[in-house]
């Protein structure tokens, strides 16, 4: 119904008389401004346009403006006044902001203690974003939201040059960004990147809708990334209590944007990108943007390559002052994304008896059976309409499809300290998602009490289809003297093949209805919200086949096709923030989450959804009239209905478990001066099995054997989650003397030890990594090279050898020294 309503609104506006549209969209006025100093001309422009002009006097010094006489729209008049100055301007509401053109689209420039309101889905300013849509689905200052939210701005991504979302989140509080999902090859993987948030797996959302697309990790198409720590189910449905990652795709800009870039790096990386946005018609109410990327490279692992091409076109139509429609499409083809993931624990975390360590470049697989290709397609529209000052309507719809074909081999056990067994597999998956979120929202006041309300509904139809085969004729490999000679055997009607096959086709439909009210009285802000979700599952096929030890036969071993019962849950949250006039804002909140479970107990009854709850208290401090934001948060999370072993029926699970995560985070995002930008964070996370009837033996990693009696997992730390993480990154750009236009940056990341099993038998090693880079703006020294920028970025500068996580048998190796440089031109 909401989709039909929005489509109807579009149709109504399309049939409006052209004269009526012209009155609301063109805004043509007569201007008479003589040629003079640009600062004076902008003042006169503000008077004639009846707008407030916001600009830093320093960037206006020395610039002259041409004469302006005639009838123009405000944006056209502003563009003519700024022509040839190297500056750009934007009309937003009653404010005109002027800033210097940079290599990325930034927000407004702060002047005299006031600033135009930032776009809550835009790139931010420097390393600081002041408002967000992710936390409340309304344009809300971060200072008014009673939970921890951090933003990776476009400038921060430009300075660090991450190649996927996990790398972009390395300096974010509460995030363990890279575990097994990175596969050691540094490719731009999507929603399967192994990101952990406050100790739990996280979910990724693009423009407010959950995504499972492998293309979600392509930073070349993102405007910003937001980390919402803590339960987010009230706004987004089924999410873990750790939080969610929100990403915003690039959309047409109000000011023209033209950018091309070529890049290079170690492991044979070559990259080309472009990003162009401009108006389509004369008035500028129809604009386009198109971004693209092509990249090819090897990786730190022999025989593993990575290739990708992708394009993201979009169009925005400002139908009138109150109505806007944006259409986005995306296609991504990744023909090369080989896997290099697991390494034996002996030879990585611990040297082998001869003292040898496995090189990061060693490929533990079969080169002739190591391909992974992805095809991703997406269509999205965003519709907005303002009925009046009290009621607004917004709708986002997206269709996405991902197809993956995989021929790989995995570690399947140690045969000795130097020889391993490999498990070849043939794998095809297809995922298809249709999602929509529609909401009514607005503001009203009762006396001195301001209410920002929202009521909405969303749905998600997700389909997953997979076919999986494994070859039980497992090849072996000497990890110190690799000799590859595997011949694939994946034919059912072949007596020499010993295959197991699996077919799994499932889908679910999730629908939710939510409401929220943000109540503000003087410095006090109160947030209240609730949501009801319904989830219906459908499992079409859940079968396993074999032709092991048989000739020309495919035998059905099992057919476990069972459709789980529908699930539903109510989640809610409440919080309050008090903002003092000197910039301090203490807050407190309580929130809940849920995730449905599809398994059943021994009686065939479905389990209740995983439910989480969190208490969070913290403080935020925004330096008055400066872009410096400091935050601190302490949290206590319980997740219930964690499944544990049924002691009476050990082949089934029982519902009694609880996982508890508690800790605190401290973070800083600061544009300290015009020259210096800084981000820093510290995270302490203590996550344990608070309640469990599972037991296990302790493991001796030196003898590769278990010892002692079984002990309870209750009270033990959840493996692979570091207690302590610290990061710091700073960028300094020179604006004077002979170094003008040159900048340098440096960062450090510390990750503490993690336990490798469920009974704290042994630990992985802590590690410290260093990042560094430099950039140079040629236009600062040579006017004819204006818009040309060169950059060099290096991660893991010392080429530290480290493991991101380990278990009894295997470890995952982190990425070694990565060097990447690019040359970017803007005009």
From TrEMBL:
SUPFAM superfamilies cross-referenced by the UniProt entry: Porins (SSF56935)
GO biological process: siderophore transport
Annotated Secretin/TonB short N-terminal domain residues: 51-101
Transmembrane segments: none
Entry keyword annotation includes RNA-binding: no
Entry annotated with the keyword Transport: yes
Family statement drawn from the similarity comment of this UniProt entry: Belongs to the TonB-dependent receptor family.
Protein name (record): TonB-dependent siderophore receptor
GO CC annotations, alphabetized: cell outer membrane
Gene3D superfamilies per the UniProt record, alphabetical: 3.55.50.30, TonB-dependent receptor, beta-barrel domain, TonB-dependent receptor, plug domain
